[in-house]
Specification:
Blueprint: E1 8-12, E2 16-22, E3 37-43, H1 45-55, E4 59-67, H2 70-81, E5 89-92, E6 97-103, E7 109-114, H3 123-131, E8 138-141, H4 147-159, E9 163-166, H5 176-180, E10 184-185, H6 189-195, H7 205-210, E11 216-220, E12 226-229, E13 235-238, H8 251-264, H9 269-283
Helix pairs in contact: 1-8, 3-4, 8-9
Length: 306
Amino acid sequence: MQNFSNTKIAVIGSTMMDLTVYADILPAAGETRFGESFTTGFGGKGANQAVMAARTGAKVTMITGIGNDGFGSESLVNFKNCGMDTTSVLQLPTHTGVAHIWVDGQGQNRISIVPGANFALTPQNAIDEVSKLKAVSVLIAQCEIPQEVTLAAFRTAQELGITTILNPAPYQPLTDDLLELTDWLIPNEIEFAELDKTHRAPDSDAVIASLRKTGRMIVTLGSDGAALVTADGSVKRFAAKKVTATDTTGAGDCFIGAFAAALASGASEESAVQFGIDCATKSVTRKGAQSSYPKIEEIDFSLIAK
């Protein structure tokens, strides 16, 4: 079976424990409703992206903070079970991050996060851990850790010749310094509108192409797939297979982890995008974030073109 066993990437970002309620109808303010079921699961945008990348067979180093609690211990075991390098998982004197997730009958979610150890990471932590990376070609980050930590990580990665991917989620204003150090910016539709100075939705190729003047960009479009801004500034759209969504939690992270692993393996950017969409489409047919991601035997490596 083809896989990315010779590919090495790193992720700096969040680790969370997801506490998820499923209900046909979510309660309004001041209202109480019965839910259908409740689960706990491993999450955090950074951890999700790292786990999906590891599912492809890539060798993944996770740079993250966990707490000195049960959730932290369980998260560390999960990383090891996924075959990831955990030497840069830092146990810090606080609680592990948690995400409270509500999923409605249409599979749409609402999420509230309490960062905990994710916000205890420091820029020096980032410099120290990224500096240790050997033969890593891609570094992924998000916005669930302090932005100055990501900035320090990307600055160090640039010095080492490592390609940087930023998923600006959850949205926050980004500094020009961070954007200049970002090789690939991958927002979803909501984040795109926040990044655009006039808050336009990515509903035309002209709008999508106008957002970024330097670096590369992909906009993920949910069930409509994704749009890639090509090297010449044009926009190429990629469709997603139509499926019935059970739970969209973590689908964007699934795309990014799979895309990054494919890109680092030497795949063409177009096939890496299609590969990411295929993995994410499989994930929305199952409940949870990491628990929904396709295993290596379910992944379609025939989509990859070098």
